[in-house]
Amino acid sequence: MYPSRFAYDAPSSVGEAIAILDRSNGEAKLLAGGQSLIPMLKLRFASPERIVDINNIPGLDYMRTDPDGTLHIGALVRHEDLEFSEDLAKSHPTLASAAALVADPLVRTRGTFVGSVCHADPQGDWAATMIALDGRIVAQGPNGRREIAMKDFVLGPFTNALAYNEIAVEAIIPPVKGTAKGGYLKLERRIGDFATASVAIALDMNGATVTRAGCALAGVGGKTIDANAEISAALVGKTLDAGTIAAAAEAVAGAADPRTDHRGSAAYKRQVVTVFVTRILTSIAQTEQKAA
Amino acid sequence: MTSLYEVIPDAPGEGVPTRRVTITVNGEKKTLDIEPRLLLAHLIRQGLQLTGTHVGCDTTGCGACTVLINGRPAKSCTVLAVQADGREVETVEGLASAQQLDPIQEGFKEEHGLQCGFCTPGMMLAAKALLQRNPNPTEDDVRWALSGNICRCTGYQNIVKAVLWAADKMREQ
After folding, report:
1. From 3.60.130.10, 3.30.540.10, 3.30.465.10, 3.60.15.10, which CATH number describes the A63-173 domain?
2. Does A31 touch chain B (CB under 8 A)?
3. Euclidean distance between CA atoms B89 and A268, whole angstroms
4. Which ipTM did the prediction report?
5. How far does the CA of residue B67 sit from the closest CA of chain A (Å)?
6. Residues in chain B closer than 8 A to A81 (CB atoms)
């Protein structure tokens, strides 16, 4: 399969890339990791007039933590950079556990965190973690930068809130208050398949007490399911025990909106969500007990 | 369709946008005028006549077309050839020297790590990237690292053995 013909630019600065996008009147498409865009070009689901390849822009591959704990993930940070980061495994368990489950190892060498969020696939792994962690996207355009909360960033399947002349230059994960706990579990038929169901959970804990709780689901609805309200109601101000864990699992599974398809029945997928929430929270509770 | 996909023409067709790129393939620098939409897999196979890189699914699913770009494994059917500009590409042809096989190739021979052989080049390059990053992998590490490469003969058991054999051999050297 061959993509249809397009013009190609490989700018060496963000400013130059924005200028090209600005001139293109919405007919240009940005290329980062390309692991979703290039298959779409080949299938001709996308046939932009111009491709703007940002891979030659230096200084976009940073992962940086501010003194207050805010994490910045640059637009060219690849999935495997997150997978192999020892710091991230300690500071952001939700992101670290999701990283190794994104697509397959070959896709992870090229695909980017920010690009994946921009792609806005309802079954995307990173979108779920971004919602659970209350992340933001920094968009840079001709008039400067603006921040977009993740809940406002995805407008619908494969549609994000960026203007045609804006680039998502980084993702921001706000600091944890207390200790960061969390995890990501995904059921897939084989590695590289879309999620049958997946669960992202991120907790801030003060000792054994949950002070903030975030949760999002992929694969069990027409969009990434935001279950932050459900898990917060079940867990904030409480400790993790069999009772609170069961309540959280039930509340989160209630937020799922799965459809029966070749990956399983709606009831089965909802059950997988219940099991995954229980597993992630139980594992956190066990490490808490060991620490105490 | 231009002749682009058969051979790299000396001069581009009229009205066809091309871009001059310099790509180092298996240590040899190549300067080429190519269409931006040309996929790296097609440049390697048709343009450079290096047919060891196989195209399997052509939909980013199977890993048969895996090559190393600046040392990291990637599916060459899902990379534009222009994206390799200024970078180093290694294909299966770059593994062996005239004198001897790469330890990974030896491992596949010793442990019968191939049946039909179609997935083998991709498997070996994914294995090379693993062993460069982790010279002492467990069986689980190997399975995890090769999980993007599909063997339609289902010969995984011996492929994993072959990579572990190569890891042993490379540690001895």
Report:
1. 3.30.465.10
2. yes
3. 45
4. 0.94
5. 10
6. none
